[in-house]
């Protein structure tokens, strides 16, 4: 195996990934991550643990038997836990978790979203989840030391004085970042835009001045996915991000019915009809935007997660050798602000323990282990002899250069990070990584921008459960598509808002207001 393109780092550097969690660099060690090792019999077999976990990584999906995988075997060995995984389909996790609780044959530990989600809220009310507070205090010292106090009171994990979930923490409070093709800007002699108007002028230049130099008018100035996912950048500039709420005039109002949305839709209609915005935006799936952005390199502006920019840049460079991207601040709106909505410190992953688990302490000890140095080394650098070598106390890490290696790396960097800090917070790791500087630039930008979402942590409200069209992907996207394609005038916006309220929107606003008054006062 060729290690020449790898990177070296001292073993002591691994501790940085724990330090940057922001709470404590100290970890408690011991069998299964933090219990009293003396209390365990020397020759006792490792505790068995059945864990339901989402198969949201290509490596896991492609595995013939994830429980026989070499990474899982090493995890089993180091954590001193006989863990066996039961995979949850990432596209059907709500349904599968709901059926799991309905059937009664539950695993010992479940990877889910917050306890305020549609699938877990009924389980909490039915007493089907374990109160974790006393268990964490006794068996989870590393979890407690590395999790900010405010995370334990979020509605994703806490209800009625009890802690039912253990959160995986986000690496920052604003995960999306705007990217531009730097090589296109340079070729056209353009400066990085700041305001909405300046961005529009750049997009027009991308459309008209052949920045890819192939003599064809095939550039796509700006793209996104169905339901305007990752295409809401200019709506954010008007503070009307569709999937957010704003508490104003004593009410919780969906972002997409605020008056400023009318102005935003006028802009989006112009962008769509003048082909500044991808005209397949309502049809694009992830694979489609990936092909346009990374495969053919036809896109000039797009939005993505800050933590994946290094891989995106590498893929783009491989397919379009001269291509360069640059993270930039999102378009500034009339109030001088912009950026996607701020998110909770708690990520979309929360661990819960069913009340049927007779030895819940084993699940706590297993998760607590992920904050230890040996766990961090495994998650960050993978397997010795496969992903890295060690010589004279230094790790030589093989940076992926093929699709297969990238997929394998995602297994240990992402899927196996059940708890603990993200690799993007380890500056030593990122500085030595190709295009890692772009990630750090993006992180710095992201911390300085973003809109407040007053509904952060709000559950899926009953009105929305009864009528899913009240969610922004329903009635609003239908109306927005008609306006942008010219099938309905933007002047009908007030009529749309009135109709939305009559079809259940008033009930949604009432429920949201009640939740806000109860949980934020």
TrEMBL record:
Q: Which PROSITE patterns match?
A: PROKAR_LIPOPROTEIN (PS51257)
Q: Which residues form the signal peptide?
A: 1-21
Matching entries from SUPFAM superfamilies are given as:
Periplasmic binding protein-like II
What Gene3D superfamilies has UniProt attached to this entry? Periplasmic binding protein-like II (3.40.190.10)
Name the keywords, alphabetized.
Cell membrane, Lipoprotein, Membrane, Palmitate, Signal
By its UniProt entry, which InterPro entries does this protein fall under?
Bact_solute-bd_prot1 (IPR050490), SBP (IPR006059)
Q: Where does this protein come from, organism-wise? A: Paenibacillus agricola
- Which positions, given as ranges, span the membrane? none
Entry protein name: Extracellular solute-binding protein
CDD domains referenced in this protein's UniProt entry, alphabetically: PBP2_AlgQ_like_1
């Amino acid at each position: 195996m060729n290690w020449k393109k790898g990177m070296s780092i001292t073993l002591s550097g691994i501790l940085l990934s724990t330090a940057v969690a922001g709470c404590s660099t100290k970890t408690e060690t011991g069998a299964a991550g933090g219990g009293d090792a003396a209390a365990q019999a020397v020759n006792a077999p490792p505790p068995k643990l059945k864990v339901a976990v989402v198969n949201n990584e290509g490596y896991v999906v492609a595995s013939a038997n994830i429980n026989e995988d070499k990474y899982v075997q090493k995890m089993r060995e180091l954590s001193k836990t006989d863990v066996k995984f039961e995979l949850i389909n990432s596209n059907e996790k709500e349904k599968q978790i709901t059926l799991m609780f309905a059937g009664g044959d539950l695993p010992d530990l479940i990877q889910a979203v917050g306890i305020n989600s549609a699938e877990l809220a009924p389980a909490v009310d039915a007493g089907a989840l374990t109160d974790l507070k006393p268990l964490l205090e006794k068996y989870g010292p590393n979890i407690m030391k590395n999790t900010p106090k405010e995370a334990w009171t979020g509605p994703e994990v806490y209800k009625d004085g009890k802690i039912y979930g253990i959160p995986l923490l986000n690496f920052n409070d604003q995960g999306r970042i705007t990217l531009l093709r730097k090589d296109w800007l340079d070729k056209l002699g353009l400066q990085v835009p700041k305001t909405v108007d300046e961005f529009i002028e750049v997009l027009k230049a991308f459309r008209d001045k052949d920045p890819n130099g192939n003599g064809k008018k095939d550039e796509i100035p700006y793209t996104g996915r169905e339901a305007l996912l990752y295409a809401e950048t200019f709506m954010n500039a008007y503070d009307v991000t569709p999937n957010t709420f704003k508490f104003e005039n004593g009410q919780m109002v969906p972002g997409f019915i605020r008056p400023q949305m009318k102005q935003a839709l006028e802009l989006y209609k112009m962008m769509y009809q003048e082909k500044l915005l991808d005209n397949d935006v309502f049809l694009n799936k992830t694979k489609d935007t990936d092909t346009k952005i990374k495969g053919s390199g036809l896109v000039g502006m797009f939005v993505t997660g800050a933590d994946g920019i290094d891989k995106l840049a590498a893929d783009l460079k491989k397919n379009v050798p001269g291509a360069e991207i640059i993270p930039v601040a999102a378009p500034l709106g009339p109030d001088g602000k912009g950026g996607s909505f701020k998110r909770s410190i708690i990520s979309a992953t929360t661990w819960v323990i069913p009340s049927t688990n007779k030895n819940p302490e084993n699940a706590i000890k297993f998760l607590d282990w992920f904050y230890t140095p040996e766990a961090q080394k495994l998650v960050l650098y993978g397997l010795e002899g496969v992903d890295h070598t060690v010589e004279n106390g230094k790790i030589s890490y093989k940076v992926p250069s093929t699709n297969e290696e990238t997929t394998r790396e995602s297994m240990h960097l992402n899927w196996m990070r059940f708890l603990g800090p993200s690799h993007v917070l380890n500056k030593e790791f990122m500085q030595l990584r190709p295009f890692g500087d772009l990630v750090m630039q993006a992180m710095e930008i992201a911390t300085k921008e973003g809109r407040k979402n007053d509904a952060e942590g709000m559950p899926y409200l009953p009105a929305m459960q009864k009528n899913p069209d009240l969610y922004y992907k329903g009635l609003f996207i239908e109306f927005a598509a008609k306006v942008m394609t010219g099938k309905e005038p933007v002047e009908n916006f007030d009529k749309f808002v009135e109709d939305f309220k009559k079809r259940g929107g008033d009930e949604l606003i009432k429920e949201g207001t009640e939740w806000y008054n109860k949980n934020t006062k």
